[in-house]
Amino acid sequence: MFPFPSMEFPKRQKKENLTERKGQKRKLEEDFDDDRDLSLPSAAAADDGDNHQALLCEVGAQVSILSTTFSWKEADRAAAKRATHVLAELAKNEEVVNVIVDGGAVPALVKHLQAPPLSEGDLSPKPFEHEVEKGSAFALGLLAVKPEHQQLIVDNGALPHLVDLLKRHKDGSISRAVNSVIRRAADAITNLAHENSSIKTRVRLEGGIPPLVELLEFIDPKVQRAAAGALRTLAFKNDENKNQVIVECNALHTLILMLRSEDAAIHYEAVGVIGNLVHSSPNIKKEVLVAGALQPVIGLLSYAFILSQVLALDNSSCCSESQREAALLLGQFAATDSDCKVHIVQRGAVQPLIEMLQSPDVQLREMSAFALGRLAQDAHNQAGIAHNGGLVPLLRLLDSKNGSLQHNAAFALYGLADNEDNVADFIKVGGVQKLQDGEFIVQATKDCVAKTLKRLEEKIQGRVLSHLLYLMRIAEKTVQKRVALALANLCSAEDQRTIFIDNNGLELLLGLLGSTNLKQQLDGSIALYKLANKATTLSPIDAAPPSPTPQVNGSMPIEFAYLLLLMLSVQCLMVVIGVLEEKDARDIEIPNIRWEVFELMMRFIYTGSVDITLDIAQDLLRAADQYLLEGLKRLCEYTIAQDISLENVSSMYELSEAFHAISLRHTCILFILEQFEKLSARPGYSHLIQLTIPEIRNYFIKALTRPNSDNRGCRQLLLNSRF
User: Fold this and answer.
1) Which of 21, 311, 318, 706 is the most exposed place for a label (fewest CB within 10 A)?
2) How many angstroms separate the CA atoms of 701 and 693, rounded?
3) What is the total count of domains within the chain?
4) Which of 544, 487, 480, 540 minimizes the C-alpha distance to 512?
5) What is the CATH number of the domain that holds 605?
6) Please, are residues 481 and 511 in contact by the beta-carbon 8 Å criterion?
7) Is there a single domain that holds both residue 584 and residue 715?
8) CA of 673: how far to CAs of 215, 653, 655, 704, in Å?
9) 525 and 569, same domain (yes or no)
10) DSSP state for residue 248 in the 8-state scheme
């Protein structure tokens, strides 16, 4: 076993920052069609001097109106309503928000969150009842989009008034205006509390959570959505708020019912609330599961997708968001215990999650990969996910440039690799090559991929190996090659002969190396080099060939005696044919050998020790080959091998062929395999590959059938070469 790869929950906070924040601003602007004909200063360049002054004047004028119209007079109410709408219209441009705040709009708007005082006994109809409060809540919600203004609005006393607005329906009056003011109050609370823990707590202390929970069952679906959105924000990373929502207000039952709503926006908000409730709260997670949330959450995976195909674009966006939240929530459920992982799969979550892996929505792909990664920590689920087609889309996600998405996919694949039944499928679809060739963005992903490959390697034995050998014999050619490549990288040294000699795996790899497709050539060279590493057992004594033992008792080394006899034989032959006069017999001319070469040759034979430099090594190799001095020849090969480079490997290989330098030849082969990618960019590489393939075949046949010291020696030559 090896350490479990790191895996974190995708951060809800990040999503709140982007998607939810923009969505909230969009919701605040919905249905605000009144006074579209307002003539307002341009907000395109708030920093421009003249325009900035015009904006300040306009804001000042509206603030002045609000400050002087706090009464039930119809004219005052109409003017106040229009002023709140003007400020809200300006606040839609975030570049102007600071100008509005600097102009003193916040205290004036907060004042109009409450109704003006009534005269005692006044039962007359109220002009623009709820309208001014709605406009004020709407404008303050837009100003609160900027975090630096949240505390200012709260310090001016907005929260108690907003909480009171949530209860406007309790006086028995139900109308569109009442519904709208409640919704705007809930939206304003959402923006004020966004990523602000102290304001979240203040909302609870002001009594804001119970009325929001009650509004989840309100008749108007827009109010339900707004209330759920506020609870979603208040529950995030605030345990006291979570406890009040779940325990004191018993909201869980209603939220689970909302998951089954046909309104995409409602089930999106509901699943978001539940997700934030269970986030980092194991006990609440258990309560949610006991309350029956699992099946409706799974249902959202498919139901939301179907809705997105038939509804308008805006609702389609909500459907995707519901799917994303549902997938994230299932991933959190799956972390509870093994039984829950199994139940999620049994209830039909796998297929829609796999379909979501192919969505154009990046976040949707990430959440589905996250959920599948959690589910894949169970052995039965691992086989089920692969059987239902999860392998290929997960492998494709490794190409993503999104680090989080890539890591979630890698973690899911790590889980699938733990099941022996998945190994052959992994290899058949090219999964091993994908893992090896991938460009991974973060270190955690690189570590996870390395552990996945290690996990696969540990399973290449027994029935898994038998299955792969069967595929390598009878499957289509593409699969055969993938199996051979994978086994070259993953199999144990003990199984190499069975795989690559007895079952023809070597010929498959050589076929790739000799291909006209550069990628296949590169894959083949990498696999063969890996195979050579495993086939060769290195030993420290192989750094250089052994030297003959020097003689200290006056006797002559056998190699020296052999050479002397050979030279005398040459001399006698020359005398017989008349080339050499008897009187000149004391001097023997040896053709093709310089004196410096001959001297080194003699020193090696007699002393067993000689220093060979690169400038003389090739001439000395030629002489050693001519006079069959294998020990000296090996030393020359060792010296020459240290000079192998991309520029000269072709000539070095030809040199090894000319003088039967087997160790040097094998060193050239290993160099070519290791440096293939660089060699392939040079002219003439294709001819070199075709030239060496027969010798590569011979090398591996010998290495895999009769390992010997020559193999170890040539491998060590390569390790000590300076290229």
Assistant:
1) 706
2) 12
3) 2
4) 480
5) 3.30.710.10
6) yes
7) yes
8) 71, 13, 18, 17
9) no
10) I
- pLDDT digit string (tens) for 424-466? 999 999 999 999 999 999 999 999 999 999 999 999 999 999 9
Residues 6+ away with beta carbon under 8 Å from 121 = none
CA dist., res. 638 & res. 641, Å (int): 5
Give yes or no: residues 607 and 500 share one domain.
no
Mean pLDDT in residue range 546-565: 49
Residue 351 lies in a domain: no
Considering the domain architecture, whether residues 659 and 702 belong to the same structural domain is answered as yes
**Which residue, chain included where needed, has tokens 């509005």?**
100
Does residue 480 belong to any structural domain of this protein? Answer: yes
CB 388 within 8 A of CB 350: yes
- Do both 575 and 688 map to the same domain? yes
Retrieve residue 41's tokens: 């200063």
- State the Cα–Cα distance between residues 211 and 295, nearest whole angstrom: 28
Residue labelled with tokens 């660089």: 678
As a whole number of angstroms, the distance between CA 99 and CA 88 comes to 13
Same domain, 586 and 697: yes
- Whole domain around residue 640: which residue ranges? 564-720
Is residue 626 a part of any domain in this protein? Answer: yes
Tokens (6 digits) for 334: 């799956």
Would you state the structure tokens that stand for residue 171, as one six-digit string? Answer: 């006086």
Listed in order, strand segments (DSSP E) in 366-447 are: none
User: Domain end: 535, 554, 574, which one?
Assistant: 535
pTM of the model: 0.79
DSSP state of 706: S
Rg (C-alpha) for the chain, rounded Å, is 41
Mean pLDDT taken over the chain: 84
Q: At what angle do helices 338-346 and 294-310 cross, to 10 degrees?
A: 40
- Is 590 in the same domain as 641? yes
Q: Are 127 and 175 in contact (CB under 8 A)?
A: no
Collapsing DSSP to helix, strand or coil, 516 comes out as coil
Looking at the structure, tell me whether residues 580 and 692 fall in a common domain.
yes
Is 187 a domain residue? no
Percent above pLDDT 90 for the chain: 62
Q: Which tokens belong to 636?
A: 């020359």
Burial degree of 327 (CB within 10 A; 0-12, 13-18, 19+): buried
CATH of the domain at 464: 1.25.10
- Long-range contacts of 284-287, Cβ-Cβ distance < 8 Å, separation of 24 or more: 284/242, 284/246, 285/332, 285/333, 285/336, 286/336, 287/246, 287/252
